[in-house]
Amino acid sequence: MSFEPVEPVGPAPMTVTDVSAAKSAEVWRLDFARAGKALQSLEHDEPRLGARDRAVMRARHDGAGRHQRFLAHVALRVLLERAAGSGVRGEDLQRSLGAKPRLPGCAGIDFSLAHGEDAALIGIARGAAIGVDLEHVRPVRIAKAHRMRILWVGAALRGDEEVELPTEEAFMRAWVRLEAVAKADGRGLAATLVALGARHARQCGSRSEVVARVLGHLARTGLKVHDLAPGLGSVAALALDRDLRLPVLRAFPVDRAGIEALLSQPAPERPTV
Questions:
Q1: Mean pLDDT calculated for residue range 79-99
Q2: Which candidate, 218, 223, 215, 257, places its Cα nearest to that of 240?
Q3: Strands (DSSP E) along the chain, which ranges?
C-alpha cells in the first residue's frame, strides 16, 4: 500500500500530465467537518446543484448520510466548474441505467465520487477514465470462500503475488480496489464482480483463473489500480488510465476564500480529439 501525502491547495494549476497533454487527472480528499460550513454557505449563495439532484438528496431519510452526500456533491460541482466553466452550474447529473453519471457541458471530463463517515474522495480526469472508492475499515459478514475470492481479486488488481491475510483491513483494501475499477470502467459493481470472477465460484474455481480474468480485464480497459492513504481507519483506491502517473492526493479547501481561490485557477486545456 502506498502512502501519498495530502498536500494543501497551492496557486499552481491542478493537472498531472504525462504521456499526452490531452490527459490529466487529480484526486481530492474532502474533510466534512472542516469544509462543511464553507460548502453549505457557498451552495446557499451561489447554487451549483441542479434542482432534481437537490430534490433527490432532500428525499433521503438518513440524516447524516444525506448531509455527507450533499457536501460531497457540492465539492464535486466546484471541481467540475473549475474544469469546464461556470456554464455547468444548475445542471442535473445525467444517470443512465448501467452507465456512469455525466454532467452536461463536461465533454471529455470523467469523474468519480466516494464518501465515508468523515471524508469524501473526488477524482477528476480529462481525456481518461477514473474511479475512486473509500471505505472505513469495519467487520463485514461474508462467506469465507467469497472473502478469499475478493482477496484474490484485490491482489491481482495491484499485481501482488502474495495475498494478504484475511483481516478486515485487507478485505476492505481489496474491496475498494474492485469498486474503483467498477466505477472507472462504468460497468457497475455487479457486472464487474462477474467479469473478474469474484461472484460465483463455478465461473472460475482457482486463483489462477481469477488472476487471468483480472489481468485480461485491466488489459481491455487500459486501467491501473493504485492504493491511496485517505486517513487513519480508512482505505481507498484509485483506478486510472495506465498512461497517467498517480496524482498526489490533495486536500479540498476548508473555507470560502480557499474555494474561491481554487475556482480562480486557470482551467486545464481541453483534450484534443
A1: 90
A2: 223
A3: 24-31, 109-115, 119-126, 130-136, 223-228, 234-241, 249-251
CA atoms within 13 A on the CB side of 62: 7
Residue with more model confidence, 264 or 97: 264
Average pLDDT value for the chain: 87
C-alpha span between 39 and 172 (Å, rounded): 29
| CB 31 within 8 Å of CB 119 | yes
Please give the average per-residue pLDDT across 7-35, as a whole number.
Answer: 65
Check: CB of residue 53 under 8 Å from CB of residue 92. yes
Beta bridge partners, 125, equal: 25, 110
pTM (two decimals) = 0.87
Tell me the three cell numbers of residue 176. 475498494
Q: What is the mean pLDDT of residues 16-40?
A: 82
Q: Which three cell numbers stand for residue 252?
A: 479540498
Beta pairing, strands 24-31 & 249-251: parallel
Q: Are residues 83 and 24 in contact, defined by beta-carbon separation less than 8 angstroms?
A: no
Strand order in the sheet with 130-136: 130-136, 234-241, 223-228
